[in-house]
Hints:
4 helices
Amino acid sequence: MTAIALAAHIFGAVVWVGGMFAIYVCLRPALGALDPPQRFRLMRTTFQKFFPWVWTAVLLLLVSGYFMVFVTFGGFSGARLHVHLMQGVGWVMIALFVWLFHSPWLAFKRAVDTENWSGAGTHLGRIRQIIAVNLPLGLLVVIIGASGRYWG
């Protein structure tokens, strides 16, 4: 069961962090060639497809992570430092995503739907800022998860 939990955990991390990387590092710069209405509509569609995957990833990460903490490690006292670090940074990432989803994303979606392009730009800028914080945190968690068992 631990192997399945670990596979689910890695899948969740790859989907969420990899998706942020693809959107922020690859898609976002390429959108500069589009006019704002086209850019905003494309980002609305992209996020609308991506965010259900993020919710799924969050659920997988929580369920598989706490399964491993309690079943594999016998509780928090049996988990090593890297597991605690992943948990702490992971909760920060989840909090940022929940805020992004329930505030700037909903406002961005409304602005695009009503063709309020200046509002859409403002809210997309806020989404970009949150991803600019969450992406390095996610990459850090991946590094911690991959290397932590070999520390000291």
